Amino acid sequence: MENQSCKSLEFLLNHPKTGHVTSNVNTETIERRSFSPKKIKIFSSKYTNIKDCPEYKFSNNKEAERLLPDINNNIVQKIIPGEGKTEKAKQAFKIRRNIGVLFSGGPAPGGHNVVAGLYDEVKKYNSESRVFGFLSGPDGLLESKYIEITQSLVDAYRNLGGFSMIKTGRTKIDSKNKMELSLKTCMDLELDALVVIGGDDSNTNAVFLAQRFKSAGIKVIGVPKTIDGDIQVKTDDKETLCAISFGFHTAARAFSQNISNLTSDASSDIKYWHVCKVMGRVASHLTLECAFQTHANLSFIGEELADYTDHHRIEKAKKKGTIDYTAYGMTLRHLSRLICDTIVRRAANGKNFGVMIVPEGILEFINEIQVFIIKLNAIIADYNLTHDIDFHTSFPTLNAKLEYLRRLTRGMGDRDKFSIWNLRDDDLFNQLPAFFREGLLMERDTHGNFQFSQVKTEDIIMDMVKEYLTILKEQGKYKIGIERSYYESTMKNSKFIPDKIAKVLFNNPEDKYMLIKESIISLKTLKQVLINTEVINQNDNIPEPIAQIFKKSDPKFKTQIHFYGYDGRGSDPTYFDCNYTYNLGLTSFHLIANGATGQMAAIKNLEKKFDKWEPIGIPITKLMRLEERKGKLELVIEKSLVDLDSNAFRVFKALRDGWMAADGNPDRYRRPGPVRFAGIAEEDRPITLMLNSI
Hints:
Elements: H1 2-14, H2 16-21, H3 27-34, E1 48-52, H4 62-67, E2 77-81, H5 87-93, E3 98-103, H6 111-125, E4 130-134, H7 138-142, E5 146-148, H8 151-157, H9 176-188, E6 193-198, H10 200-213, E7 219-224, E8 233-234, E9 240-242, H11 248-269, E10 272-278, H12 285-294, E11 298-299, H13 302-306, H14 311-319, H15 332-348, E12 354-359, H16 367-387, H17 391-394, H18 398-409, H19 423-430, H20 434-440, H21 457-474, E13 482-483, H22 484-491, H23 498-505, E14 513-514, H24 523-532, H25 544-553, E15 558-564, H26 566-569, H27 575-593, E16 599-604, E17 614-619, E18 624-629, E19 632-637, H28 647-660, H29 687-692
Parallel strand pairs: 3-4, 3-6, 6-7, 7-16, 10-12, 10-15, 11-12
Antiparallel strand pairs: 1-2, 2-17, 4-5, 8-9, 13-14, 16-17, 18-19
């Protein structure tokens, strides 16, 4: 019997259907790998040239001039047809090259297509050329760990998500020793060029490598990657050269598909508020795009909160002859009140449910929290500098850290000077939840940034919301509206006249959704009202239909918390990102072949239709600004925030009240559909880009 069972299992495992459905590679993957992204027309030319474009102006940065003298004078370069090249120049274009490539920072959908585009173009011009992939990002460069990228390897990862082909890492090349190790690796491999695929910090690495490598004749090109969408390039004249980094569209669509599913769940189950935190530590681009994709009831743009001004408080202070500095910038308390207002208004119209989107870094835009972060960063950096030992090593527990802060308030700091941390700070800080205080005092990331992803932002905000909703409920201001048809059907078979009872129970007995009077906050107060209005006698019980209506009006506030980040950045790329990243790979090669270095490969006119796209190189030095990192000023690429004057934000601001649906109108949820790489229904650009192109 056992032998027969083994034979049966062997037959099952060897059956072709079993092999087909359990294979690592399914039909979708096969289709993705075989999909051929579109190529910008210029890349159909046999050769290309680069044209300098001095009309695109950027202000000079003195520190960039000092630290990056050999590439600081780079200007924008446009790739143009090169049919007029001399025979010598054509031969130079086709020489055998060795090119290195690495991923740096978190994954973003489309990275493999950058490598595919680069590889295809390298081999197109000289089949003897070689491409080397450094393993685990900058670590592979520092430790000389690499593989040669082959046709079969590229074909296995075309149009697929992640950075699995050669992996990625977050190591910064930020010292002379690391720079020399990187140069040695490249020279040992006889590299002609290095392509760094990464975000703002990675492209900062790339430009310093370009400066160091120039004398060795090795070119360095950066490629803009980040799902946060905070690498955007505009000239001093506000002309857009790079509308968005790659991976943004895919991540937004992946998040939006999940959020859209929650809108369906919320409007079906009608008892939850789904709170969706999406990645975006410094900028709220993803939140804005997800808002357009899903029409969630509430979406908060951090940049708008930071720009908030409380005019009522300003006027109140002016009458007293004072200035209320707390009127500038959103507070946590005010933010919680805004959320409560929407929840209460929707409940009044029978919708005690909804979907809310908040950016991961929303707390960075809250004035009082930002003050804490700035002060604590300064205290930690000052301690590290003074003692030459890490603050978190000296004070490993929350209590130890808090005690050090209290010493500062008592004037017992390390230096005889005015303390940055005062009694008011200490008092306000101690009012915060313990887990949030611990979060604010936790170790900073490798770039010296506060790690918002490690703090349960949504818990902090929603705890305040729940607390205030409890107060509103006790005041009789938070109730679920009773739909007239439900009320009439419930009262239909009772002995009471519905219209008469409606006037006793409701503030607005004529409306579609009727609200129980504020004075009725419990079954006890309900009974007293019924007795006072002679609906029942003192010894009577509350009639069942009336009790049923009251219970339905009593709100139970329930939340489900969701975080969208790693799932989206690991998604297979959209049609837009497939095409975008492949052409970034092509652009990288043509910049190298035309002798460029210290440039960021970019596509101009991304916000327009594909036939308008133009491959360009942007001087990375012109994008850099001094920024505080771990208590010191460092030269880094400036992040791009949501522009509150942009078409996209203005349209969002005009439409969000309708999406809130805090009235008698139905919800306007939108279904973005799954991420696709082909098909007539697939979007060819992010919605925010389409709006900004108008």
